[in-house]
Write a structure and sequence with these properties.
This protein has about 160 residues and is an alpha+beta fold. The chain has 3 helices and 8 strands, in the order αββαβββαβββ. Strands 1, 2, 3, 4, 5, 6, 7 and 8 form an 8-stranded mixed sheet that branches. The radius of gyration is 19 Å and the shape is elongated.
């Protein structure tokens, strides 16, 4: 019995250390100079955190980009990743928090109705939404690397 508890605790500790040692979305250079800044609903969001009620109220609005002069530029496409946290049971019946990742490429500047419905029904405190590889219209080459990725964490 003591051996099973020891093994279980060791595995949980090892998993926690491994998962906390890297983050899939932290590979973007923090000091990179972006030409554009993405905004959900063309709103001035401060910080990465948003209350669920606020997120639900603007998630259906289009994504846009602003340049350094605050000019609004339309988005032609982006990638979205939804990191949905959930409470599950491990093999011994103990609760464990696990993150499910869902990813899609979106053409245009708005989320499809299916995604909006998913967010309104299932998003919860701690979930994270990433908008990446954002293509800006008006950018002569329409390069995705010119727009800073957007990360929203539901509070």
């Amino acid at each position: 019995m003591h051996m099973q508890v020891f093994i279980h605790r060791s595995l949980v500790l090892l998993s926690t250390i491994t998962l906390s040692s890297f983050n899939l979305h932290e590979n973007v250079q923090a000091d990179k100079n972006y030409k554009y800044k993405a905004q959900l609903g063309c709103t001035e969001m401060q910080g990465d955190f948003m209350v669920k009620k606020s997120f639900d109220s603007i998630v259906a609005f289009p994504l846009c980009a602003r340049d350094s002069n605050q000019n609004v530029l339309p988005i032609t496409g982006f990638d979205i990743t939804y990191a949905e946290r959930g409470l599950y049971e491990d093999s011994t019946g103990l609760p464990i928090i696990f993150t499910d990742y869902t990813h899609a490429k979106i053409d245009g500047n708005s989320l499809p109705k299916k995604w909006i419905d998913i967010f309104k029904e299932r998003s919860y405190k701690g979930d994270t939404i990433f908008f990446e590889n954002i293509k800006v219209s008006g950018n002569s080459e329409q390069k995705a690397n010119g727009c800073k990725p957007l990360r929203i964490i539901i509070r």
